Amino acid sequence: MVESLASSSLESETKGVPMKVTVDFDVCASTGACTQVAPEVFEVRSDGYLYILIEEPGEELRDKVTQAADLCPTAAITIEG
Ligand code: SF4
After folding, report:
1. How far is the CA of 30 from the centre of ligand 1 (A)?
2. Are strands 77-80 and 20-23 parallel, antiparallel or unpaired?
3. Domains defined along the chain, listed by start
4. Which protein residues touch ligand 1 with a CB less than 6 Å away?
């Protein structure tokens, strides 16, 4: 007799949720470190401010965005999802 212990409720909660990138601009020092590793998502413009180019990047950018958050000297980057 085989019993199934599988529950799909947790799976359905975690799948299909897009990653969301936010920056706390109060603490961002516009160092540009994040733009070096994830230029698709972050850009420091000539006005000296950081801009988020893609607020909900695809999974293919998760590694880069995570690396950017790790490298940020002021821990300004938050990733949800
Ligand atoms: S690495 Fe951090 S402090 Fe530097 S520009 Fe990006 S968010 Fe701002």
Report:
1. 5
2. antiparallel
3. 14-80 (3.30.70.20)
4. 23, 28-34, 42, 44, 50, 72-74, 76-77
